[in-house]
Amino acid sequence: MVLPSKMPQLADLDLLLSVESCGSVGKAAQAHSLSQPAASTRISAMERRLGLRLLERSPTGSKLTEEGEILAKYARNVMQAARELLEFGSRARSSEAKRIRVAGTPAISEHLIPEWLNRSGFSFGEARVEVQTGSIDELRQLILSSDIDLAFIDGWGQAGSKGWQQYRDDLATRYICDDKLAVVVGSMHPWAVRNTPLTVAELAAEPLVLRERGSALREFTDGLLGPTGAPQVYIELPSTSAIKQAVVTSRRVTVLNVSAVRAELTDGRLHLVAVDQEMPARPICAAWSEQRGLPEYAADLVQTAASKVLPAPALESIHEPRQISSRMRSRPRKTSVVDTHEAIA
């Protein structure tokens, strides 16, 4: 819609309403920081555009004509709508300032970001939080296209470990912690109370639950079991949640990153099993646009994630490979309390 040229300006309608309330053009001009001649000129120009006589002027002041009063009625509605529009814009700017758009690789988005948000310095009532998930390449594109403010990356979302490194020229990154892999069983499995480290041959002989081919977890598991031959009995599932559910409700075994099973380890549905050889770890990093920097709330979230303030549930300690000796293998190990975040750091 194209407004006609005779449409009054908001400022002129506001001035007319001030004349009505003040009783004179001079007082209305003073309220609007105008000279009286300037205010009179604006009212007269509006009268000419509309073809209406709006004021009755006298030495003692000015009052609205009948036509002026009708216009004033419409003007009050217009000014109220204008105020509501300005308030909407103010609310929108405030909401945008308190908005955080964050993303992560699947395990981080599902298992760590919600906990970091809950433990950060702001509440959900104060900020609009949008969380997405995707592969490393997808997260980089979201950052570069300004669709997210912050991404958390780990190396367990896709095979290969060099893909993220090549993108650091256009992104700022901060190390958060290391995420280790571990053998995991449900409470019904005999290994849940096992006191000695597990051999790879024993692992290969068990019914396994595996990630899909092409994932980093599957790549590592295949490499771990390679010397003993491919597993003969296994279920292949496309997500960590599906794998956990399958292991919790059966006597099957899996290999998962520790960050993904923190809740189940805490409540006893899943258990870590020590292995007699090195289990790898990959770093979790925060990443954002180096050019744009981080909004305040996003920076707070990075600080929360890096501060390792996650709860410390009571878990059975698992052997580190360098601690294992023949003497240790021949006797039951003691139970101790460890911080699960330290297990992924």
Could you please describe the fold and organization of this structure?
The chain contains 14 helices and eleven strands. It has helices at residues 10-22, 25-31, 36-50, 66-97, 106-111, 113-118, 136-144, 200-205, 216-225, 240-248, 262-267, 296-306, 326-329, 340-343; strands spanning 55-58, 61-64, 99-104, 128-133, 150-153, 171-186, 208-211, 234-237, 253-257, 270-273, 281-289. A hairpin with a 2-residue loop joins β1 (55-58) and β2. Strands 3, 4, 5, 6, 7, 8, 9, 10 and 11 form a nine-stranded mixed β-sheet that branches. A two-stranded antiparallel sheet has the order 1-2. The two termini are 61 Å apart. The chain folds into two domains: 10-95, Winged helix-like DNA-binding domain superfamily/Winged helix DNA-binding domain (Arc Repressor Mutant, subunit A, Orthogonal Bundle); 99-343, 3-Layer(aba) Sandwich (D-Maltodextrin-Binding Protein, domain 2), CATH 3.40.190.290. The chain is 40% helix and 19% strand. With 345 residues, it is an alpha/beta fold. Mean pLDDT is 80; it is low at 159-163 and 309-343.
Distance between the termini: 61 Å
Assign a percent range to the helix content.
40-55%
Biggest β-sheet: count, sense, barrel? 9 strands, mixed
The name of the CATH architecture of the largest domain is 3-Layer(aba) Sandwich
CATH class of the largest domain: Alpha Beta
- Rg over CA atoms: 34 Å
The tally of domains stands at 2
Query: What is the beta-strand fraction?
Result: 15-25%
What is the H-and-E element order? HHHEEHEHHEHEEHEHEHEHEEHHH
Overall residue-averaged pLDDT value = 80
Number of strands: 11
Shape: rod-shaped
The helix/strand class is: alpha/beta
List the uncertain runs: 159-163, 309-343
- The tally of helices reads 14
